[in-house]
Amino acid sequence: MATSFQTSTTGITPVFPLWEAPLPETAWVDRNGETWVPAGHTAAGELIVACPEPLAEDDRGEGPSFPWTLGMVERAFGPLTARADVEERRLVEVDTKFLELYGPDQRAWKRWQVETYLDAMTRVHAEFTPAVAA
Known about the structure:
Largest sheet: 4 strands, antiparallel
Shape: elongated
């Protein structure tokens, strides 16, 4: 059985050469905390990824970037973790901390405790929200 995104309303399934295929929306985080995003495909169809905002100043530069493939990044900087998984792990850590501080029954928390908790969760989400140019 196919899911809705695997079928089209016209009955025609689009076929792309691998190097022109739509890019996945997943971003990955390496062991150093760097974020890697899809940036194209090689002629053979392997996914190329880029680190648009390197943490180390020396890694920032002008001009075209080296065409890192996902496999190369995994071998050099792995293990890679999906960025959404890293965000979820951070949210669980914050949630656990507040449950230990204020108790497991959130209905018994005071208003300032709820606001502090929500503020902390919002800050975690903000860490993982892409910056939007104005």
